[in-house]
Amino acid sequence: MLADLHVHSRPASGDARSSVEEIADAAAALSVEAVALTDHGPADLHAASAVFADRGLTLIGGREVVCDLGHVVVLATDFDWLGVLPPRCSLPLPDGRRGAAALIWAHPAGWRSGGTLIPPDPGRGAEHLHGVEVLNGERLHQTGGVAIAEDLARSLGLPRCGGSDAHDAAALGRCLTEVPGATDPAGFIEGLLAGRAEAVLSERWGRARGYDYRRSDLVPYLR
To answer: How many CB atoms lie within 10 A of CB 71?
Structure first.
């Protein structure tokens, strides 16, 4: 299964510009099999799942939360548990969910707090992670960002993941994660937990948007 694991929608994310329906339509147009809605606030994931199912697509439940480590994408099959996570959490996350969950360090090369760029510090909770986002669609331009994230993934022994960090439908599908053999959200999350995830930079998205990726750090991920 090939999925975009970092997508925002309105109204659950105040900085998003596209509705769930618009995101699902964009995913269908690009043949992206699955999408994780990782909004900053609680979303109606049950309703969103029906929207995706109507288009023959899969919704993976998600949230993006802030913790001492930085921003973390949370994937889980328990939509209700995701819905009650606060925007800022301590790690480990509150227990009580049903089913599997996975945590991915989002754009780990640095995040801003009060205008200051905070460098990555695995000592702030990386032992609770299950993946590292080495490809972030909104930050591919960041100098050395991919290499920093790759080094973190290597040192932590975690799989490399990709997510578009899309805040509108046009940005969806740029950076993806593949878990071979997964056919549903539970299988996808379990495969990620087992270390079988791979980051993908979408050639199809690039062609549709007029991008010709030539950077040496990006070419290995093109597919």
So the answer is: 20
